[in-house]
Every structure is written in structure tokens, then in C-alpha cells.
Design a protein that fits this description.
about 290 residues, extended, 7-stranded mixed sheet, 2 domains, alpha/beta, 9 helices, 4-stranded mixed sheet, single chain, about 25% strand
Length: about 290
Amino acid sequence: MENKREIQDFCRRFFAAVDAPTLIDQTDFLQVELPREIDKQLTDRPYYWMYVEATGQQVPNTVLSLSFDRSVAVEGIEKIEYVTLGSFRLNKMIETAQKRGRVTRAYQQVSAKRLSPYLLTTFKISFLADRRRDEMVSYGVHLGHGSVEADFYPRIESLTFGEQPCSAAQVERSALSLAEGYQLLKANITSEIAALDHSWAEDADAHLAEELEQLETYYHSLGLIHADERATDEERSQKATLYAAERDLRISELKWRCAPRIQIEPFHFAVLYVAEEALRMTSSGKRLSI
């Protein structure tokens, strides 16, 4: 999900999948009514629901008003949430989608075709430093011969799948286990990430070094300012220990917040049986970018 259109598409598909009625659907704006079970998963208020269910209250369903552009205003609606990568609401939707549909097995609905087994995995890649950038990517690995296909989900999303293969379809057996296929996917995505331009990490390291230098200067000045010739050696030692502990804590916090790192999080798996010619017709060639 690299732009607001893709985010909107994901949100609309999510709410349709969980049977949340759409009240308003406009350009860059969506208002939906949440079924109770989905409300519990998206709104993060467990004590409220414990109280409601313990007292047997009948409460109205929550209505979410979501915008995909900060400038959106809708007459008569005051509370509108802005949804973008990294926002609380989108993160909760992704987390819920993970839990509800983490593993899927499906067969392309075509007759008299040879269906090849693929492991599809969707990853959330987070480039983390003093700023954060998230990218959603999908890969498929052929469980017969191990070839890896990038940008796999957009290539199969328009195909029709079912829980059972059609009559006369020939289902190819997997030569690789799911664990072996996943290891191939991990190796491929790690290789692609390594080949990216990582000047952002160099910039983040330089910024972190400046922040650490300022922090060291600050604590050095504290020692000078609070020097007290009348204090005993024990008092000076206690104060120095206090400053050192506080300094170490702030250094750890600063490194956690600003040190560059990359987090790769798989959140959806599907074993799909697909006709090879269908994939050839939908090749996209899209790759990771930063």
C-alpha cells in the first residue's frame, strides 16, 4: 500500500469482508457501521466491552468516519479520522486481517488445467529511524521448483478461487514444504532489501551521532554545574552514579528511537493452486523501492 488509493481499496475490501455496512462512500471518505465483534478488534477498549456484556446493555454499533486526505470535510460529521500508513486505525485493521485470515488454501476455478502450488506471503516492511516508512509487498514461491515471483498478489487478485478444484483440473503436488518455501521467500526479500539505496540509514546514523554528542555534552555540563566542593566523596559518588544511570537510560531511548533498522513482518499466508498461463498474462515486474 504505497498511496491513498491502495489504502482506500484495502479499507473497502476489509469492511466488505467483515460485513460492516457502508453508510457513506465518497472520494477520499468512507463511513461504516461496525458489527460488535469487529468493533472489539478495531477500537481497543476491552474494559468497555467487559462492562457492556456484564451488565447486558444493548448499545448502538460504533460508526467510523474515515478520510484518506487531510483536507476532507463532510457536512454534519465532526469526528473524522485520517487513515494513512502507520495510523492507529489502519494498523488495527491490518492486525485484524492477520488474525482472521492468516492462512488460506484455495484453487483457481478453471477446468481441465494443470494447477501449480504457490505459497503467497504478504510482508510489511518497515524502514525505521527517527522517521518511519512502511511498505506492503507480496511474494509467491512455486512449491514445485522453488522459483520466486515478486508482486504476486496483484497478479492473482482478479482470478477466481474456490475451496475445491474444478472437475478435470490437474493439481500438481508440492515438492517443497511450506517451511522450505518460506525460507526461499525470506532469502529473496532479504536480497532485494540489501540491494536498495540505504543512504537513508547513513543519514539516520549521522543524525543519531549528533544527538548522542549533544547528550554527552549535556551530562558533562551537569557534572560541572552541580560540582560541590563541600560534598563528601560518598555524596559525589552517589550523584555521579545517578547521573550515569540517567544518561545510560537516555542513550538507550535515543538509540531505540533513532538508530536505523529494517523490520520485516509476514502477516498473511496462502497456498494457492494456479494455472501457469494465468500468471504469465498478469506479469507486473514491480519491485521494492525506497
